[in-house]
Amino acid sequence: MKEIVKHILLVDDHPLLLKALKMILAAEFPSASFYEANTGNAALELIATKPVDAVILDISLPDISGLDIISRIKRTCPRIHIIVNTMHEEIWYVRQLLNSDVDGILFKSLDSSVIADAVRKVLSGEKFYCDEAARLCGPPEPAEDNVTPRELDVLKLISEGMSNVEISRELCISVNTVDTHRRHLMEKLNAKNAADLVMTGISRGLIPINR
């Protein structure tokens, strides 16, 4: 098979993992060039100054949220393929990644042999979601079309732990109006309480995770 990889950026704040990733991929793609970054800012600087075809990204970085990095890459360099290699196997993280339209999702708990296969398929124009991620979430669910922009504002503030009174002050609406929005959200998202409401909002991509 003709080698398709040109330049790969590896992003992880663990030096040993960076070294291991490079060893695995260099063996599979001997003519590829590799760049390494251990922070989000370093990764974005390399993307701005070097030719990059694919990024293998850990979303837990010390300075910038991996989801924010994904958003910036999609906005400024949409041709770059993004494969997320993460230790986070929770449904809400995976759902966020799916809704972010990344090209691949890998879990760090997987056998290293999966990584090269993921890169090869993604650089060929395919999506690659590891079996565990695919089983966990299935196809990405669309956000609820009937959640209004104001209800979305209320939902995000609920996720920040604000009370109805605090939300009313923040949005300059009455407490009764906040309560109405909250009840509508509970019905639309089939939530039983505030915690369930927030978790459902995250899993459906209505509430971004920027941590």
From TrEMBL:
<dbReference type="InterPro" id="IPR039420">
    <property type="entry name" value="WalR-like"/>
</dbReference>
<keyword id="KW-0805">Transcription regulation</keyword>
<dbReference type="GO" id="GO:0006355">
    <property type="term" value="P:regulation of DNA-templated transcription"/>
</dbReference>
<dbReference type="InterPro" id="IPR058245">
    <property type="entry name" value="NreC/VraR/RcsB-like_REC"/>
</dbReference>
<keyword id="KW-0238">DNA-binding</keyword>
<dbReference type="GO" id="GO:0003677">
    <property type="term" value="F:DNA binding"/>
</dbReference>
<dbReference type="Pfam" id="PF00072">
    <property type="entry name" value="Response_reg"/>
</dbReference>
<feature type="modified residue" description="4-aspartylphosphate">
    <location>
        <position position="58"/>
    </location>
</feature>
<dbReference type="InterPro" id="IPR016032">
    <property type="entry name" value="Sig_transdc_resp-reg_C-effctor"/>
</dbReference>
<feature type="domain" description="Response regulatory">
    <location>
        <begin position="7"/>
        <end position="123"/>
    </location>
</feature>
<dbReference type="InterPro" id="IPR011006">
    <property type="entry name" value="CheY-like_superfamily"/>
</dbReference>
<dbReference type="InterPro" id="IPR000792">
    <property type="entry name" value="Tscrpt_reg_LuxR_C"/>
</dbReference>
<dbReference type="InterPro" id="IPR036388">
    <property type="entry name" value="WH-like_DNA-bd_sf"/>
</dbReference>
<keyword id="KW-0597">Phosphoprotein</keyword>
<protein>
    <submittedName>
        <fullName>Response regulator transcription factor</fullName>
    </submittedName>
</protein>
<dbReference type="GO" id="GO:0000160">
    <property type="term" value="P:phosphorelay signal transduction system"/>
</dbReference>
<feature type="domain" description="HTH luxR-type">
    <location>
        <begin position="140"/>
        <end position="205"/>
    </location>
</feature>
<keyword id="KW-0804">Transcription</keyword>
<dbReference type="InterPro" id="IPR001789">
    <property type="entry name" value="Sig_transdc_resp-reg_receiver"/>
</dbReference>
<dbReference type="Pfam" id="PF00196">
    <property type="entry name" value="GerE"/>
</dbReference>
